[in-house]
Design brief:
With about 280 residues, this protein is α+β, with helices and mostly antiparallel strands. Strand 7 and strand 8 (about 150-160) form a beta hairpin. The strands form 2 sheets. A 7-stranded mixed β-barrel has the order 1-2-6-9-8-7-5. The protein has a two-stranded antiparallel ribbon with strand order 3-4. The model is unreliable at about 260-270 and about 275 (pLDDT under 50). Among the domains are: about 5-30 and about 85-170, Ku70, Chain: A, Domain 2 (Beta Barrel), CATH 2.40.290; about 185-205 and about 240-265, no CATH class. Helix content is about 20%, strand content about 25%.
Length: about 280
């Protein structure tokens, strides 16, 4: 069964309109869920919704959404009110600009969705847009409304799919001016840079996501399984980190202790890759 579409609408650029579905590109298969328990008898803790004024429990049918416009002053918004908030991005991801992928920093990107063509009539335009973005190395930038919020978003190819990734607006990005960062191109010597590049070269290789796994969840599962069996789990010894305070010495030792890896010839890659949120 194909995954459920989270949003149905269209992509538009120029006079071209493509009906599409959005499907989440990630799933939390490895997540471990925990419940809150009473320490005394291990019974579940249940969260209840109480009215602050009347001190009574309130059922879901009597709960509404309110916006606080002044201290302790609220205006209630109904589903009908939200339906009245209609902007073009509610129904359409309108491409406003095509920009070089390398020009957009990763910190702007948030959550990825697969884009699927909606019906046979959209297939040709979908393939054309996907392959045009790949050939030009561009991202398609526009806005879209998801979960009652407008998002900046980027569209780009990933294999045979188009992927739409929600983005943060510029005003949501905290500037790093107060972090005391060193200036680019300064603070190191040429000999240190030479060794650093050699170390980068020894650790270089092709990207294969299957090389990585969630080792913390695996270790946590082992602890849970031991406690279920009535055993007391033990913490494994972690390897001691070498304490080298001299940068040149640390670089030299790193190169000496790590055998040089064969670096395969690199295929052209996109300027950035999607990450799960």
């Amino acid at each position: 069964m194909p995954p459920r579409a989270l949003w149905k609408g269209s992509i538009s650029f120029g006079l071209v309109t493509l009906p599409i579905d959005l499907v989440s590109a990630t799933e939390a298969r490895e997540a471990l869920a925990f419940n809150l328990l009473h320490r005394k008898d291990k019974s579940r803790i249940i969260e209840k919704r109480f009215c602050k004024k009347e001190d009574v429990e309130v059922p879901w049918k009597d709960i509404v959404k309110g916006y606080q416009y002044a201290k302790d002053q609220y205006v209630v918004l109904t589903d009908e009110d939200f339906e009245k908030v209609r902007v073009p991005a509610t129904q359409t991801f309108e491409i406003r600009k095509f920009v070089p992928a390398a020009d957009v920093e990763d910190l702007y990107f948030n959550y990825p969705y697969y884009v699927a063509p909606q019906g046979r009539s959209a297939v040709k335009g979908y393939a054309l847009l996907r392959d045009a973005l790949r050939a030009t190395g561009k991202l398609a930038i526009g806005t879209i409304v998801l979960r009652q919020r407008e998002h900046l978003a980027a569209l780009e190819p990933a294999g045979d799919a188009l992927v739409l990734t929600t983005m943060r607006f510029a005003h949501e990005i905290r500037q790093p001016k107060d972090l005391g960062l060193p200036a680019s191109g300064k603070g190191w010597s040429e000999s240190e840079m030479k060794l650093a590049r050699q170390l980068v070269d020894t650790l270089s290789g092709e990207w294969d996501p299957a090389d990585y796994r969630d080792t913390y969840s695996e270790a946590l599962r082992r602890v849970i399984e031991a406690k279920v069996k009535g055993k007391e789990p033990t913490a494994p010894e972690l390897p001691a980190r070498a304490r080298v305070t001299d940068l040149m010495e640390a670089l030299k030792r790193s190169l000496k202790e790590r055998p040089r890896q064969h670096v395969a010839s690199r295929k052209p890659t996109r300027a950035r890759r999607h990450r799960a949120a």
